[in-house]
Structures are given as C-alpha cells and as structure tokens.
Amino acid sequence: MRGGLAMKRWVPVLALVAVLGVACGGDDGGTDTGAPADDGGAVTLTASNFAFQPASLTAAAGGTIEFTNDDDAEHSFTAEDAGIDEDVEAGDSTTIDLADVEPGSYDYFCKYHKDTMTGTLEVTG
Ligand SMILES: [Cu+2]
Asked: Which of 22, 24, 39, 123 gets the highest tally of CB atoms within 10 A of its CB?
C-alpha cells in the first residue's frame, strides 16, 4: 500500500483520465473505430537531425512506443524515472514496452546528446 501523499497526488490525474475517457466515448476496446492511435496501442517516436519528434509524447500505460532512429548516429530513449533506457543504432528501430510504467509525466532524453535531445513522456492510465 502506498502512502497517503502519493495517493493525493494521483487524484487529479485520475479525474482527468476519467473525464477524457468519457469524452472519447469510452476505451473498452469493444469496438473498432479504425483509428489505431486511439486504442492506446503504439505511438511513434523518431530521432531525426538530433532531435526527438515529437518531443512531447503521450502514450497509454500498457502500450508501446515505436522508436525509430533516422540519424547516422546512435541514440537512446532514456527516461530514468520510468526505468527505461533503450539504445537504438543508426537507422534502426525498437519497441519500448510501457507495461511496467505507472501513469504520470516523465522527462526523457538521449544519453549521448543530453544537451539537445530531450522531451516529455505523458503516460495515461
Ligand atoms: Cu542522441
């Protein structure tokens, strides 16, 4: 069981998620709307010209991030607070699993180009 402070911190986030869930008409996965991005499955992240695109990522807890490196240098997707540190060779791609990541906001960066390659990952519940 977590402490009371941690619970309080999540209440506004959970309320927001509930509101968004209603606004979207629910997310029970029972109907196929033909919009793969809406089912919380995979989101796409690209490293290009030594920048993350997009820098602000939103993904569902339990979903995945498809990370592609379009540059001629190795990059990483490193979100320390989320316990993620994935290297991707030049021209390669990888799938980052968010199954063990709790909803919240996480700063991420490329550990090889920490000064210029940064972003924020929002994991929704
Ligand atoms: Cu890099």
From this structure: 123
Distance 94 CA to ligand 1 centre (A): 14
Q: Is the pLDDT of residue 82 over 70?
A: yes
Cα separation of the two ends of the chain = 18
Tell me how far the alpha carbon of residue 50 lies from the centroid of ligand 1, in angstroms.
Answer: 6
CA of 72 to the centre of ligand 1 (A): 10
Spacing, Cα 92 to ligand 1 middle (Å):
13
pLDDT in tens, 38-68: 445 899 999 999 999 999 999 999 999 999 9
CA atoms within 13 A on the CB side of 120: 6
Q: Which two tokens stand for residue 103?
A: 């909803």
Provide CB contacts within 8 A for 57, sequence distance 6+: 43, 45, 65, 108, 119, 120, 121, 122
The helix/strand count (H/E) of the chain reads as 1, 9
Amino acid at 93: S
